[in-house]
Amino acid sequence: AAHPEPAIEAVEWRASDGNIAQISEFLGQLRASNGSPEYIAWAEDAVHGMKAAQAAGQPYWRSANEPAPEDAVPPPPAPQLMAGRVYVLTDSSCGSACLDAVDLWKTAGALQVGRETSADTVYMELREAALPSGLARIAVPMKVYRGRARGNNEPQRPQYVIEGDMTDDAALLASIHRLQPR
Fold first, then answer.
1. How far apart are CA 126 and CA 138, in angstroms?
2. Count of CB atoms situated within 10 Å of the CB of 154
3. What is the CA radius of gyration of the chain?
4. Which of 93, 109, 99, 89 is nearest to 171 (CA)?
5. What's the CA gap between 99 and 90, in Å, rounded?
6. Is 56:50 a contact under the CB 8 Å cutoff?
7. pLDDT in tens, the chain (182 residues)
8. Beta carbons of 143 and 132 less than 8 angstroms apart
9. What is the pTM of this model?
């Protein structure tokens, strides 16, 4: 079933010296290699936001979607480009960005078929740091999703489970053709 709310509310970045250094280093690499202006703007925004949060004594910088002005007129409905049901086919190899895509497709009304996906946490964008002893390194998440409709370590479960060989295109199409439209 479709989630009634957007896939996520916001992303919060931990405003730490290590995270600022990591994104600043990435920003330097982008600038040195004539990186995408969008990525450069994103990295500048993240560094500025984390520094501002630190200066204000805040542990996190929230990178939220920009709210629409209160007097904004909603856009007209987009033209219907296709008729019929949209299916999203998944199996246990779907994780990370694939799960984000399934979240969006289901929010838009697609029907999930196939098998249960993998799961992910709401923590992401890892950086490595050496432990003070110098004997080991640790992976430290830099950001966290807030208000994600799908919970932490929660897979996406299909409305219609398809058994059999998930690499057999003909069998998969036959299974999908047998589904009853809603």
1. 10
2. 15
3. 21
4. 89
5. 9
6. no
7. 444 455 678 899 999 999 999 999 999 999 999 999 999 999 999 999 999 999 999 999 998 665 545 555 666 776 777 788 899 999 999 999 999 999 999 988 899 999 999 999 999 999 999 999 999 999 999 999 998 889 999 999 999 999 989 999 999 999 998 886 54
8. no
9. 0.72
